[in-house]
């Protein structure tokens, strides 16, 4: 069977080629060749701040951690061959793998999919398969697996994301869907001209703006912040961490207790109201529900005045500072921005809803440089104003299965088949999953309370199939692992929303080992399951590239942008999509005429009170922004045993867990363990010094990490960035008794939904204790290859 003939005419690499480009989520890189072999990646010359993350990638791509051949877990294979009983299924993670031929592996996977479909229906297949995959619009693994599963009868899908679990559900009810909001944000150029006060909740971290889904060509955030500073904008950063913003100039830091921002913002709103500094005209013409907001602020509804004194007790910020801040906001052209991390918390809807409420009371929404943003700095896309059109996207087909879960309810689903759960005003049931197929994500990176998930992983699914490039923890914990190519080993198109460049990502090297493109893997499986035509539409990958490009070109034309035909694009390497006028003002039309340009909310206006959400009657998410105590925070009684609030932010050295094993990420570790940032006073109180090995623990889990001292973090707060590959001391779930040896914070985080409304991930709500690690430290083994058995 011939699945993917090499593209005609286009010699992708070798011979005279001196360079080509590749796109990653963290940047465009130039591939350097020596004698036809790709030898290095260099930062893109037209990028003012190329990310160092990509520079060492090539070594990792060629390195020992690649999955070389299809591999099947020993006991799973024995059971499939009828050599053992089902009861002897063995233990995922700790067992040897048997390397098998592609034909045998594909037969096994197709056969198992068929068996599960016939015995239990497609609702027994979880293809939620969340994850960022690689850049490149066609070989986007998550889209590929979804399209494939749809072609064979469907799968249980996931809704929403880990990024924006609470916001994706909340925001369409009250303002606009997050996907729309992303590209609407007021551009940096406008902020530079008009904003006088810029207030960030959670900073504007340039480390995060290294990234945009699909591929950054031009990193704009570091320069934009510098220009704003030079233009005289006053910056205030409200955050538990001082250095999550760098403007090159002065930034006032207001340290806040984690997860208390909603209380602060409600107190700012209360101050505006008490002092008559709010904008009644804007509230009347553009919003609904202020009549429900002010009685809550003044305490008329519950006897508690949400004033600065009240918030001071919760947030740790002096009342006078809160009052002065409210006045300054009203006196300036003020842009308020909030990092996405704030909604990744218990009751994570409330900080976003409070922000919208405060911005509405200030009445500057739709004015140049005023209003609010959600996520300046969170990715390079926000505030970036290049051409806007829908880029090349692989259609995923139609899913015949209706069942789904909110993405971070995966362990609940595995543990509680048949039980009901609340979500966005509806009740749903968890399906009974027998088979999990994952491509392009790492659940043992992204999910919370990994010990709990490990238990469910070991006991519930009969089969777990993973397409992976590397021997990640998710691959080690699978039954069948199929080796996938990286972006350097295939042709693709790099494009991200509002980015400046579209990139012809030409194949730079032969696939490592026997790795295949996900597309070819799924084509071969579809063939075995009688769905080849549906899945491929008769096209090889290169034909798909042309088709997806041409479709996107049509959409660009409709958006007033003229792109060249495919061949010209492919030969030319790069398209520049910059536009002359970069001045975008969010909600400008709505502001000027809310009747002619209504929002897509039930009232057409900003909903400070939502009848619809109120109608759901959720005690944990009522019809308007309110302060709720999170289940764990510094003000709770649980802080006695576990007195540190753990922030698990995005790592500056990588994207999630991707390329954790590459040099740049490795260079930031201390003795091979992930660093945990502690306030100097907190470290001294525990007798800890820089570099000390510590045990970080709570009732859910424990991990090792190495101390990094800081004066830039609130006392009582610790920060352990995500991304260290999960390295448990045992493959059975045993809570804090199972020591994670590398510094993966998700053994500590809490796995409950943000609220009944969204069920979003709440990774930032977590208390821990830290102590010196006693005894001889166990060896870190996250990068050890699983044992391989030779086929007999
Ligand atoms: N504690 C805590 N946890 C968090 C967060 C947090 O803030 N705190 N953040 C959350 C957020 S916002 C997110 S988005 C998630 C991210 O979670 P994920 O997106 O799952 O994390 P990645 O490490 O990007 O996983 C991508 C995987 O896909 C593989 N891959 C890449 N390209 C390909 C390909 O072409 N084919 C195949 N088959 N595989 C490929 C990579 O090797 C890697 O293992 O994490 C979440 N988890
Ligand atoms: N380099 C790199 N960049 C990335 C990613 C990556 O993995 N690596 N991931 C990308 C993805 S998928 C996403 S979704 C985005 C995520 O973007 P975010 O969710 O915004 O990122 P985080 O780094 O988790 O948090 C940003 C800041 O919020 C602050 N913060 C945390 N909790 C609180 C709080 O309770 N109150 C206040 N005021 N501040 C708080 C922290 O100090 C932190 O510096 O990042 C993207 N960018
Ligand atoms: Mo994310």
UniProtKB/TrEMBL annotation:
Coiled coil: none
Annotated Molybdopterin oxidoreductase N-terminal domain residues: 22-61
Domain Molybdopterin oxidoreductase residue range list: 66-528
Cofactor(s) needed by this chain: Mo-bis(molybdopterin guanine dinucleotide)
Any one Pfam family match given in the protein's UniProt record, by short name: Molydop_binding
Superkingdom as given in the UniProt entry: Bacteria
Record family assignment: Belongs to the prokaryotic molybdopterin-containing oxidoreductase family.
Protein name: Molybdopterin guanine dinucleotide-containing S/N-oxide reductase
Organism this protein belongs to: Polaromonas aquatica
């Amino acid at each position: 069977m011939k699945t993917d003939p090499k593209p005609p005419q286009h010699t992708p690499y070798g011979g005279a080629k001196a360079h080509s480009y590749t796109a990653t989520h963290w940047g465009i890189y130039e591939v350097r060749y020596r004698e036809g072999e790709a030898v290095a990646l260099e930062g893109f010359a037209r990028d003012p701040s190329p990310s160092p993350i990509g520079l060492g990638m090539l070594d990792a791509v060629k390195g020992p951690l690649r999955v070389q051949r299809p591999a099947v877990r020993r006991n799973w294979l024995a059971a499939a061959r009828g050599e053992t009983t089902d009861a002897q299924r063995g233990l995922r993670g700790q067992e040897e793998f048997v390397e098998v031929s592609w034909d045998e592996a594909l037969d096994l996977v197709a056969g198992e999919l068929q068996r599960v479909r016939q015995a239990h229906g497609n609702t027994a297949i979880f293809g939620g398969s969340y994850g960022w995959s690689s850049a490149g619009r066609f070989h986007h693994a998550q889209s590929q697996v979804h399209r494939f599963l749809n072609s064979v009868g469907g799968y249980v899908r996931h809704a929403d994301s880990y990024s924006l679990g609470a916001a994706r559900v909340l925001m369409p009810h009250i303002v606009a869907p997050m996907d729309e909001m992303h590209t609407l944000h007021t551009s940096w150029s406008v902020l530079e001209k008009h904003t006088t006060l810029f207030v960030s909740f959670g900073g504007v971290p340039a480390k995060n703006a290294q990234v945009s889904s699909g591929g950054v060509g031009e990193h704009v955030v570091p320069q934009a912040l510098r220009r704003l500073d030079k233009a005289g904008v006053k910056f205030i950063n409200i955050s538990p961490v001082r250095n999550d913003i760098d403007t090159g100039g002065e930034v006032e830091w207001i340290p806040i207790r984690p997860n208390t921002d909603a209380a602060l913002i409600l107190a700012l709103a209360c101050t505006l109201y008490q002092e008559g500094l709010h904008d009644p005209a804007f509230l009347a013409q553009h919003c609904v529900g202020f009549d429900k907001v002010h009685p809550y602020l003044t305490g008329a509804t519950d006897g508690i005045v949400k004033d600065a004194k009240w918030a001071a007790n919760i947030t740790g910020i002096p009342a006078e500072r809160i009052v002065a801040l409210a006045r300054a906001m009203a006196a300036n052209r003020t842009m308020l921005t909030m990092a996405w991390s704030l909604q990744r918390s218990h009751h994570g809807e409330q900080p976003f809803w409070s922000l919208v409420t405060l911005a509405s009371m200030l009445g500057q929404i739709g004015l140049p440089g005023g209003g609010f943003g959600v996520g300046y700095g969170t990715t390079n896309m926000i505030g970036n104003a290049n051409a806007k059109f829908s880029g090349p996207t692989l259609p995923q087909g139609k899913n015949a299965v209706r069942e789904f879960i909110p993405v971070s309810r995966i362990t609940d689903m595995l543990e509680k088949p048949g039980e009901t759960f609340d979500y966005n005003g509806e009740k749903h049931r968890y399906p009974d999953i027998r088979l999990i197929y994952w491509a392009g994500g790492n659940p043992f990176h992204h999910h919370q309370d990994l010990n709990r998930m490990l238990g469910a992983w070991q006991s519930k699914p009969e089969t777990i199939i993973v397409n992976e490039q590397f021997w990640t923890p998710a691959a080690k914990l699978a039954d069948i692992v199929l080796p996938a190519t990286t972006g350097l080993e295939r042709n693709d198109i790099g494009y991200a929303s509002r980015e400046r460049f579209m990139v012809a990502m030409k194949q730079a090297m032969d696939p490592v080992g026997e790795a295949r493109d996900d597309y070819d893997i799924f084509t071969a499986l579809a063939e075995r399951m009688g769905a080849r035509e549906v899945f491929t539409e008769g096209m090889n990958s290169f034909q798909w590239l042309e088709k997806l490009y041409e479709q996107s070109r049509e959409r660009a034309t409709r958006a007033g942008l003229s792109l060249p035909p495919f061949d010209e694009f492919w030969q030319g390497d790069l398209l520049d999509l910059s536009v002359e006028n970069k001045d975008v003002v969010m909600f400008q039309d709505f502001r000027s005429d809310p009747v002619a340009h209504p929002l897509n909310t039930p009232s057409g206006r900003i909903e400070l009170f939502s009848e619809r959400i109120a109608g759901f009657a959720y005690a944990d998410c009522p019809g308007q922004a309110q302060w709720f105590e999170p289940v764990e925070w510094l003000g709770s009684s649980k802080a006695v045993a576990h007195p540190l609030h753990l922030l698990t932010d995005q790592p500056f050295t990588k994207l999630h867990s991707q390329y954790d094993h590459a040099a740049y990420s490795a260079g930031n570790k201390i003795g091979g363990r992930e660093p945990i940032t502690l306030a100097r006073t907190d470290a001294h109180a525990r007798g800890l010094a820089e570099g000390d090995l510590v045990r970080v623990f709570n009732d859910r889990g424990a991990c090792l990490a190495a101390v990094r001292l800081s004066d830039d973090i609130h006392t009582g707060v610790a920060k352990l960035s995500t991304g260290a590959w999960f390295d448990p001391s045992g493959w059975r779930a045993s809570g804090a008794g199972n020591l994670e040896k590398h510094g993966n914070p998700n053994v500590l985080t809490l796995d409950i939904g943000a609220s009944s409304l969204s069920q979003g991930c709440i990774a930032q709500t977590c208390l821990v204790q830290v102590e010196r690690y006693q005894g001889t430290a166990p060896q870190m083994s996250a990068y050890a290859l699983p044992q391989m058995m030779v086929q007999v």
